[in-house]
């Protein structure tokens, strides 16, 4: 066991080992401070998405996992996925099609925020936060790739996450958009003091993230 203080803020992965049969895919202990990024790199099949699945609570049962996932001192290792409050972003923005931007964002708002006006105000604020002010009424199908990525980010932030788990979220964007989007995501994480785990194949993402980078072995 690694001797680590578990009550500090941020995301702590303590003595995590993930196996598939006899193969050890992941073996690590890492702490990600609020607002900081841990970048996970490594070749295809190394286990990057598997690690995200373990943290988010959606690890396929073909894997054996041990170790603890601790967020702001709370041990969530055995918690149901929906109670972990992980904000997930993937390559694909996964927006609900043929629904307005505001409709997509409304879905993410916690149920304890009541009243249409209060909910709309939060949606509008979230849209301003990702520089999409005034686009609430648009059908998501009519948005550009970069705009869809911003809506996906706004939706995740509205869900009041305790951490961000990002699986190659910039890889479908072209070079210029990719740079803008990663700056926006990292800025929002710092602003909201969210620890971030970023899976990527792009060393430029790791460099822009500025935190620790680990490389999983094939
Ligand atoms: N449901 C599953 N059943 C069996 N093997 C699986 C399953 N999911 C993943 N694997 C295997 O586990 C290993 C790790 O997969 P994982 O998706 O975590 O890799 P990755 O590093 O994210 O790869 P990529 O960069 O291609 O996304 C791979 O060998 C993969 O084939």
TrEMBL record:
Domain of life, per lineage: Bacteria
Record-linked InterPro entries: AAA+_ATPase, ABC_SmlMolc_Importer, ABC_transporter-like_ATP-bd, ABC_transporter-like_CS, P-loop_NTPase
Keyword Nucleotide-binding: yes
GO molecular function: ATP binding; ATP hydrolysis activity
Domain ABC transporter positions: 6-216
Family: Belongs to the ABC transporter superfamily.
Entry protein name: ABC transporter
Organism: Nitratireductor basaltis
């Amino acid at each position: 066991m690694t001797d680590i203080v578990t009550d500090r803020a941020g995301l702590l992965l303590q003595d995590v080992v993930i196996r598939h049969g006899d193969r050890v895919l992941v073996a690590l202990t890492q702490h990600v401070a609020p607002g900081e990024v841990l970048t996970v790199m490594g070749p295809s099949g190394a286990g990057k998405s598997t690690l995200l699945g373990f943290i988010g609570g959606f690890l396929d049962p073909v894997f054996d996992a041990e170790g603890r996932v601790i967020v702001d001192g709370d041990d969530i290792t055995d918690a149901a996925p929906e109670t972990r409050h992980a904000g997930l972003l993937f390559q694909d923005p996964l927006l609900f099609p043929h629904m307005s931007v505001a409709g997509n964002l409304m879905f993410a708002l916690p149920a304890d925020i009541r009243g249409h006006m209060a909910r709309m105000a939060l949606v509008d604020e979230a849209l301003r936060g990702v520089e999409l002010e005034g686009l609430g009424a648009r059908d998501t199908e009519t948005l550009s790739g970069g705009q869809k990525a911003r809506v996906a980010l706004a939706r995740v932030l509205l869900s009041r996450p305790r951490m961000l788990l990002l699986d190659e979220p910039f890889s479908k964007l072209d070079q210029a958009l990719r740079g803008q989007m990663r700056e926006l995501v990292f800025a929002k994480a710092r602003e909201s003091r969210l620890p971030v785990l970023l899976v990527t194949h792009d060393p430029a993402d790791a460099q822009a993230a500025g935190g620790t980078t680990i490389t999983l072995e094939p």
